[in-house]
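debug: dumping io for the single-chain case to check the tokenizer round-trip. Nothing else runs in this session.
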Amino acid sequence: MLGVDLGTSHTVAMLRWPDGRVRPLLFDGRPLLPSAVFRDADGRLHVGQDAVRLGYAEPARLEPHPKRHVDAATILLGDAEVPVPELLAALLEAVAREAVAAAGLLPPAVVTHPAAWGTARREVLTRALALAGWPPETQLVPEPVAAARYFAEVLRRPVPVGATLAVFDFGGGTLDVAVVRNEGTAPDGRGRFAVIASGGLDDLGGLDIDAALVDHLGMELAASEPTAWAALREPVTLAQWRARRHFWDDVRGAKEMLSRTAQAPVAVPGLEHAVHLTRDELELVTAPLVRRGVAEAGVVIKAAGLTPADLAGLFLVGGSSRVPLVARLLHSELGVAPTVLEQPELPVAEGAILAATPPPAPVSPASPAAIPASPSASVVGTPASPSASVAETSSAPPPSPAAPTVEPTGEPSYAEPVDPWATGEAVALAAAHGETFTLPTSGASVSPTPIQPTGDPWLASAQPPPEPALPAYRRKGLWIVSAATVVVLGVAATVVALFWPGYSALDYQPLGEPRRIAPVAPLTSSFSAAALRDGRAYFAGADDQGQLGVVAAAADSGETLWRSTEAGVADRWEFFFTLPHAVVAISATDSDTRDRRMVLLDPGHGNKMWERRIASDDSMLFTGDTAVLVDRAESRVVGLEVRRRGWVAWDQKNPKSQYGQSTTKVVTATTSGDLAGAATTGGVPFAEPMDDDERLVQIGADRSARVLDAGTGDEVTAPRPSVADPDDEVIAHHGRLIVAESGNTRRILVYDLDKLGEPEVPYTAPDNRQIERLTACGDDRVCFVQTTGYDAKTAHVVAVDVAKGGAQWSRPLPQAEKLVPVGDAVLVTQNSSPAQVSLLDAGGTVAWTRAGAAGRLDGGNVLHFSKALSTSPDDPGLSGEHVGDAAVPLGSLAGVRSATCAWDQKHLACVAEKDFVLHTFAS
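debug: decoded output
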């Protein structure tokens, strides 16, 4: 799903993957696209930073803020009148191209607009969407409604039914203020937000603050350096115009820096020394402007028939909101403490995704659609009616039938691009990346249903990307999260591996004829999966009526041990995995009841042990012989006994914040034994032990951490305050709680699980670095991906010694996405096109980079697929490799859905086109 905030000064686009990850699209490595458009002499429109650069030479051809002219028919750029919809379409084309580059197609999208825009202005936007080739189903959402969604659903701030939220959107070009009310439950079960009052100032924004600061510095320069200031104030030559632009850029950068520091330098063209701007000066100069905005907020709140005390919250968005004076004056003048984020430019675009009800499913291309060369070159579809923009949005039409998969052509050594969901690693991604989802560390193998494509999505080329595929997950942590409708089976939000030396090479042997196992009913495209545990293979497949058939077979001989239909029927099944004492199947969320069915079968005979309905936003983890339910509706954590028909063994209430919030994260503790065996390409083990450390760590909404015994629910370590937010990346491994701090200072914090005392700080990231994919990669080592800002091209894989402190190594690896430890080495999947995987050795050196996908066999061996994993029958080459030795070719698989495959140290179990297959690749 794609959310787009088409701003006056900048445009932001956020992309939500099917596994729930939300990331900004990057334009020239940055999450902000300048909303500038430049028309060259040939009539071509350039946007973003390119337009700004070209405008240095020919300012008359540049329009820096086309959205401000929404009421005009055309704008004069150079010697030609350009229709305003074409200017906006040029920006939307740039967003679409980046979305296609990131996801392989243009996902279903939501675009925001100011609350004050009526039908005529929305018609301009829908016309621009059509000119840019976006589908007519593209939804429109008022900006404050999107912000309210983010406030309520991402920040988890309470906005009860009937309560109101004020949104103060202070952008680069304008100030927009709105009051939004929760109107009650919508058909999808969530709150429905509507704008009840709006206003703003078109002549107040970040640019006006910049101008005031330039004038302030100009007074100083006029006295000390009159010649230099005259050239900046009234440029004549092209060089002087460029110098003026650079000076303004430096002033803007200093303004942003002063939100973090007390003083910032400003370089002055033509001078050897810089002038300095202090935060006191910033606030002195900008106070009159900010007070105008505060006064406007008061007017809008009064127009809604409210006082500031009546508000459930005051949410600051827009880049200029980060100026500290803004929040301080709003608080002092209105008496309401505002909420402002570190990156206030992003919430509206992400909130737009949440405002799409229901979110359309990810799509696979049915046929290619070319990207227009210019806004006026072609128009795809019919403009969406502006009336489609209401308090929320209209829902998307149902998806059309899936199109056949086309094998991409090209160099045989490369694999086709693949979405993380398509590789069957959606759960693993969530677990491995330390996001808000986690999954079971039992050796569970899970597979979601292939996602059906809609209509004619916009593609980058005539070669469709692989269709979304089924994942295999497992673990001491299974989280089910509604926002992504995903189950993550993993080690408490992370993939962990060990530093075990001495893993010898497996005795690899070529693939022979597969042992074939018949399904209970003919296989369809709706759902199928495989799992391996304790010498048995388990296969699942759903028929057209949703009846799930499960088959167990001996892994060595292929002999069928039992066949079962006791899992029953569901509209759609999503996950299938094993525990030591159960085979688990989980359905997708029922659209009527908004819950899932979780069914446990006896692995010995296939009889149903028990089942439980789980709310769509609840989470499940498995450790020891306990299924741990994170019950969000009741704000509690519940222990269910796996072998006693789900009997409730214990119940613990969630810690609450001072505002009464009960958001929580629960992770399971892991050891090296959890990661000694085979794991998926996302690092999720297929069959790790579950009784080596039966502790849970719960992070509360009050930022506390406590340790619970999963078997009894007892609090074995007293709560410690101020440890982490529920959204922070945390793992519990080898007796430690490891936190990736997400504040202004990015640090790794390490706590002793036995006492939760004062933390050690083994690593502090440089300024402007992001820490993601926190992964235990040894008993005393963690690995993670570190980027500059959100630019994946700057990614480094970093290894930190959590016992002795300090980074052991840091290796540049652009687009690094998933980390899978293999002994002392680390497999790194890169989000590139074509997909590729690299192996970093114990010292962080790149041992090799190959196309395709790779998973761990044990602490010293790797299984490599020559192509990206797919849910359609395919013939990937297979090789086994002992780390440090040459790869051993094993042969090619024939007609298997490689994304369904599960493996151990000698067997490979996969779903084929019409049946199930078992291979042996090592003795």
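debug: round-trip ok. Residues 572 and 588 are 5 Å apart (CA to CA).
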